[in-house]
């Protein structure tokens, strides 16, 4: 009897366990169906970080908020610097904002509707203003300047910004009238819903890499993932690039090599009547202008007769402006918009007065901290000069670790602004070099050009190869058991005279890519890496192989007839 009772009790416990197990299986199945099979119907509002007028770019929340609406819309300066133009300049001392394109220069100040466009008065409808320590700029004038597109949604307050040249595919939500389709936070039916999209709603398709899901944005600003089958393609939205007149460099110099020489002008005016014939030269750049004080005032040595002679020879005249090679003066003169504009206005007046065809900037011996001001000067000069049909170029050194001569130059940015970059590919071994060597060995020149093209993305046709028409006579003298090195710069004719007088026989230096001589004099060794037809022809061929925009020779007075004949081959 006890045995039967025990068996019955065991069977009851086994039945209870099976029922519990069955319930657990059913519950798990329900859970699996609800959470892994059935779509999630939970709605979760998007997180717009508490922004009242959130701004979106490429379907992504930028983290910035606009201010105002419609005709009174203002956009935050940091947003514009990050997504539209990183070169927009803010100057704290004057609370001013400077915006530039190749053809327009806009200057505004906080809380002031008086602005300037290309240094001419412009009355703004809205003044820039400051909110929570952020400067906001009027959207209408920015749309005109940059050509971007704005869409505002009155319901959500969202602002959708597309930059000039940007394109996005469009679509519409398909389905029967009255139906809705889910826009989800993630590419899964189990993700929460951001919003239900009504049939026919327009969307911008920002990402279609997933075959089953599209990342889209409604005109309300809501973003998320929609099933690809729920969206019907509906063309594209394209913001056309702002139409721009081609610069004179693009009109007149495209496919036509520049063959320029710098005319070093000191106290005496050069006399063109004494010049050698200059076959193939089509540009001259006299060193006539220099910034002479901390206010940016310019001194001129310009000569109308010289301009008249050059134009009569079919040459353009690109007047050179230097910073007097004084670092502290440069710091002060480029420190504010007002001072930079003072220099620019004077240069444009000189260009009008002397009928110049261009302006060549030669800023050297500059602190690295002032490099941004050099670039800004060029950004402000370019639209002003282009309005007067002037070519704008700037002289740059090969890349090196020299603070005062190289590191301050942002060659990438300068290449975007200037018509031409003159690469001063010489002084590889400078006057005070502790080691004798070539002024510009061919391999060093080639590397100098390659680095600017490859590292700074400057188009080859914007680069002009600077060529030395001088060389150095190096003297190596033994003093107290050590070799003391000194040098003297001389012209091509001077070297020819030395070779003839001393009956020297040049040998070819393979490493330097040029002829070389050495001789003893006054107990010292004299060494010369020669600039002649051989070295110049190699430089011409190098410029051609890179597809450069031309040549620039320093300086005319160092050259001779054979030099000009050889350099003329750039046109062949």
What do these coordinates show?
The protein is of the alpha/beta class. It folds into three domains: 54-162, Copper Amine Oxidase, Chain A, domain 1; 167-238, SH3 type barrels; 248-469 and 531-571, TIM Barrel (Alpha-Beta Barrel). The longest helix has 36 residues, at 2-37. The chain is elongated and about 120 Å long.
Give descriptors for this structure.
29% helix, 32% strand, elongated, 3 domains, 572 residues, TIM Barrel, five-stranded antiparallel β-sheet, eight-stranded parallel β-barrel, glycosidase, Copper Amine Oxidase, Chain A, domain 1, GH
> How does the overall form come out from the CA principal axes?
elongated
Q: What is the CATH topology descriptor of the largest domain?
A: TIM Barrel
Tell me the helix content: 25-40%
Which second-level CATH architecture of the largest domain applies?
Alpha-Beta Barrel
CATH superfamily of the largest domain: Glycosidases
Mean of all residue-level pLDDT scores? 95
Strand order of the largest sheet: 20-21-24-25-26-27-28-34
Please indicate the percent range of residues in DSSP E strands (runs of 2 or more): 25-35%
Output the number of helix runs: 14
What's the β-strand tally?
A: 34
Which CATH top level class of the largest domain fits?
Alpha Beta
Main beta-sheet strand count, sense and barrel state: 8 strands, parallel, barrel
